Fold:
Amino acid sequence: MGAEARILGHGGIRVVAQAAEASETTVRKGVDELEAGAEPLGRVRRPGGGRKRADEVDPGLRPALLALVEPDMRGDPMSPLRWTTKSTRRLADELTRQGHRVSADTVADLLREEGFSLQANAKTVEGAQHPDRDAQFRYINDRAKEHMGAGDPVISVDTKKKELVGQYKNGGLEWRPKGLPTQVRTHDFLDRQGPGKAIPYGIYDVAANTGWVSVGTDHDTAAFAVASIRRWWKARGSHDYPQATRLLITADAGGSNGYRTRAWKTELAALAAESGLEITVCHMPPGTSKWNKIEHRLFSHISMNWRGRPLTSHDIIVNSIKATTTHTGLSVHAELDPGTYETGIKVTDKDIDALPMHRHRFHGDWNYTLHPQHRDTVSAAEEPRPAKHLSARSRADDLRNPELTGMTEPALDGLVEQLSQRLDELREHGRSQQRGGDRIRARGAGAKDRLTTADRVLATVLYLRKLGTRDLIGQLFGLNGSTITRAVHQVQPLLAENGHTIPPSTARFRTPADVTAFISSSRPTKINSAC
Structure:
């Protein structure tokens, strides 16, 4: 408009303004810009022209938005959107209700400027970690290096997620003609009249990078788990390791192969007797099952191989597992196990004690070895004598072992001496309150204490070392758990008052026989004086 006005000369500004239906002031500005030699702006408005941004017009908009999306950090915990989905439309509606007129698109722009984005949950919180978690990982690593260095097999075992067999949805995407997805059931309810479910139990050979999967159809029991290991050993392991005399199994802490599962140990003992192998089991610490090598070396690749396809039969499952490979050379064998496995089988303490099982000194509950000796060949003379039948002198000698108490015998004696007087005073005060008056009998008359002062301190130390339950500690002293509970309640506060901290042990025991075996293994061999 300024150029046209200059061409027309005098009166051109008014003529152009009338023709363009614009203000004469606007046309005059164009003429002035041309005469000043200004470059074209390349835009309709000058910088800063037009409607202002919503957060500039309303300075309280941005803080109000942050208060809604971060109620735990910046806003009110009772935010109206605390328990609803925080979509941009819901956020815009709530802001408008609060007096901040804004659209969903503007909310999205403001969130991006503040560093927000749409994100899914991240599975990274593992809960409380066991204090010996890292030490157990190092222990497993050392055992694995030792076995592989000697040419013995090391396998990682676990049960994969149970799969429904039939026209059910399977996660993942698969290439299909556009608009023709595979049709599956609306609901993933198990059809009792259909083929049922599949239970893949995997064995991964760490050194050979090979996998073996038994696909069960009944129950995920310890018998099924060990039967799968037996199948692997007979068909593959014994041929790959013909000179092997040992087998190391790494497993997670729960399930059919968990460290608390008694049937798992009895079935492994039968396999050790049958195969002649010395079977060592090292369990992952609780809460770390995803660290088991089979999870990311085998199971993850199986899941990717059958993604997006309904598993309509057991044959499809077996063949899909067989076809699983990786660029690093993984090969997998799979077969169907149609056997039935009973549940609810009881294994008694006597059955466990009869097993040819040696618990390792470091966390014997997680690490143990089953020797190739059938339980029937273990004679009664070879079984360790239960600690609850020990005499007072033997108990003082054995349970005071520094491996159990975590302190030297002189240090234990000093602790007993330090607490004895205070313990006696507290006990006398408690008895006086129970009587409601002075003594009738002389001190020392009447029924004797089941535990001496030294035994009460020793029992409390053993319990605080977390060697076993209170019932187990009671069995070691030939008493019940209630007596140990009373002793702990008396001694533990005095330990805290005097600044004594009893660190937990890495050893765990389940029966008195386990304690006796541990003491026997830690006692130095005596040299015959005649030599």
Remarks:
- Residues 409-435 form the longest helix (27 residues).
- The first strand starts at residue 154 and ends at 159.
- The chain has a mean pLDDT of 84.
